[in-house]
Amino acid sequence: MGLLTNSPEVKETDLILGAGETYTSITDHISDVVLKNRTPLEWFVIAAPAALLAGGILVAMLNLLFRGIGVWGPNVPVGWGFDIINFVWWIGIGHAGTLISAILLLLRQDWRNSINRFAEAMTIFAVMCAGLYPLFHTGRP
Q: What domain range includes position 116?
């Protein structure tokens, strides 16, 4: 049988912690994952392509800053280039996050909290990404 909560010899910590565990031993188990274990090789295999992509974006943005917005394609006969299309794309993604949050609020869904947080974070990051394009569209800021 389990521990009886009405029994006077049962302490509050016995109801929370397992047998033979203390707060210190639980803390040691949790912190050992971060402090004692080495980073597995798989993490580096997965992180390498992400680092290459980030480096590629950095190279592309430096190329843009040194050569101008002509690398995006808005030349004399072309009115829409990469910057304007992506600006509209990110604004649309931001509107989608707001729409998801608003629909769940209007339908009074009780389970909406975590999805609302995700949708609102998506909106914030989309607006931040969209804000980069007018900045860089000015040429060489």
A: 69-141
Q: State whether 85 and 136 are in the same domain.
A: yes
Total domains in the chain come to 3
Q: How close are the terminal C-alpha atoms of the chain, in Å?
A: 71
Identify the band that residue 40 occupies on the pLDDT scale cut at 50, 70 and 90.
confident
Q: Output the pTM of the full model.
A: 0.54
Same domain, 46 and 59: yes
Residues 73 and 141 in one domain: yes
